[in-house]
Design brief:
Elements (H helix, E strand, L loop, with lengths): L18 E3 L8 H9 L3 H6 L12 E3 L11 E5 L4 H21 L12 H5 L5 E3 L2 H13 L7 H7 L20 H14 L5 E7 L2 E6 L1 H10 L11 H15 L5 E5 L3 E4 L6 E10 L2 E11 L2 E7 L12 E2 L5 E2 L16 E6 L4 H12 L6 H9 L3 E6 L2 E4 L5 E3 L10 E2 L5
Parallel strand pairs: 16-18
Antiparallel strand pairs: 1-10, 2-3, 3-7, 4-6, 5-6, 7-8, 8-11, 9-10, 10-17, 11-14, 12-13, 14-15, 15-16
Helix pairs in contact: 3-9, 5-10
């Protein structure tokens, strides 16, 4: 596990996006390059998930102040009442992004902070953590998911995205190396066994990472340094933390969007918002439609292709055109995507809850539509795009800007199909 390849670790009314064409020759890398050029920069990146009002209407993109933080992975649109609120929300956002960066950091420790990194270095020792982490661990525990315990696989497999050439993948990609696949299966067996590893919630923000002696011995032999890691879900829990803290401080007239597909709308004022729906077809990536909505909402956007420059740390396209993504099956550590695009959203659930609920549906060999119907019965709606059609589970979903170019167009299927 010690081998590594790492040496780097919807703004309002953007230009219209219709289709990104792919050349039949040498499509590997062309998909990434085309989309990156189109959606380069934080402003256009936000459009991948949301459209808001114009700056002339008083909206601002809140920019965190100086200091190391997670703000570079988020876009926060807000409509302040006056200059005083503008300053106040900027100060609050700066502080919260810095705290989130420290708390959810899995590779760096900070003095006096029991973050993910510190927890991994202290197995079988009770620790007092921040409420942000305690809440995230509680949510994961309530879901029954074991994704959190794939930490060693996330750490090793993550090197795929930092490779410069396909020949480097064999050390990290289980699809290309049976030795790597066997190692991931061994770790997955530990990760799925609560007797081998678990987070115990002790109350009063105290937790303990319980790791069995057998697993500790294996970790020592395999040079494992990370037992737990939220992996691709990290920004889901950070979005929840930011949203809950901003709401508690009275800053609700806005919305948060992470570059990797987690949305928290805080606004209960009746302002209209839009969620952009992308789709990958053989010909390229399309803006299939826009879903209109109002009111507070959480959304999770899962996709098997990159949409922005930041996606370089989560996607890798081989010369064959295959794309490696961050979504790993907890059963065996293999990368799986049931469909190209899947969006889920709910009014009364957090991004973390949604991510944990949708993970077993999306991280699969094939999509089980019945599973989406069961989630809809729990209040979790979804939208998927397949074969030039948009399939919502919500009969009240409203769509606009449905893609059409004279040759092809998207249609909206009746809800529940």
């Amino acid at each position: 596990m010690g081998r590594t390849a790492r040496d780097k670790r919807d703004r309002p009314h953007p230009p219209p996006v219709e289709r990104i064409e792919l050349n039949d020759e040498h499509t590997g890398r062309r998909l990434i390059a085309a989309v990156v050029l189109l959606l380069f920069g934080a402003a256009l990146l936000a459009y991948a998930f949301m459209q808001l009002m114009t700056p002339e209407d008083g909206w601002m993109e809140v920019e965190a102040g100086a200091g190391t933080s997670c703000a570079g992975e988020f876009t926060f649109f807000y409509l302040p009442a006056d200059a005083a609120e503008r300053r106040a929300v900027t100060a609050a956002y700066t502080e919260l992004c810095q705290t989130a960066y420290e708390q959810f950091n899995e590779v760096e420790s900070f003095e006096g902070v029991s973050n993910i990194c510190a927890i991994n270095r202290s197995p079988n020792e009770p620790l007092t953590v921040d409420q942000a982490l305690y809440s995230a661990f509680s949510t994961a525990a309530e879901s029954g998911s074991r994704l959190l315990y794939l930490g060693p696989v996330y750490r090793r497999y993550g090197n795929v995205f930092f490779c410069e050439d396909d020949v480097q993948l064999a050390d990290f990609d289980p699809a290309l190396s049976e030795d790597v696949a066997r190692e991931y299966r061994e770790i997955a067996a530990f990760a799925n066994d609560p007797d081998m590893i678990r987070i115990e919630l002790l109350g009063d923000n105290r937790i303990e990472l319980v790791v069995a002696e057998e697993y500790l011995a294996y970790a020592d032999r395999a040079e494992i340094e990370s037992f737990i890691d939220f992996g691709w879900m990290r920004n889901a829990f950070i979005a929840d933390y930011l949203a809950e803290e901003l709401t508690a401080r009275g800053f609700t007239h806005g919305a948060l969007i992470s570059y990797d597909g987690f949305v928290r709308n805080l606004d209960d004022s009746g302002t209209a918002y839009s969620l952009s729906l992308y789709d990958r077809q053989e010909q390229g990536v399309y803006l299939a439609a826009v879903m209109e909505y109002t009111g507070p909402m959480s959304a999770v956007v899962l996709r098997d292709y990159p949409l922005s420059d930041l996606d370089r740390i989560h996607y890798y396209e081989l010369r064959t055109g295959e794309i490696r993504t961050p979504y790993l099956d907890p059963a065996d550590g293999l990368n799986k995507n049931a469909v190209h695009n899947l969006v889920c959203y709910a009014r009364d659930k957090s991004c973390g809850e949604l991510a944990l609920k949708i993970a077993p549906v999306y991280i699969a060999d094939a999509l089980q539509v019945e599973a989406l119907e069961r989630l809809a019965a729990e209040g979790i709606e979804s939208i998927r795009c397949e074969d030039w059609a948009i399939y919502p589970t919500d009969p009240d979903a409203v769509f606009s800007q449905i893609y059409e170019n004279g040759e092809v167009r998207y249609t909206v299927a009746p809800a529940g199909n």
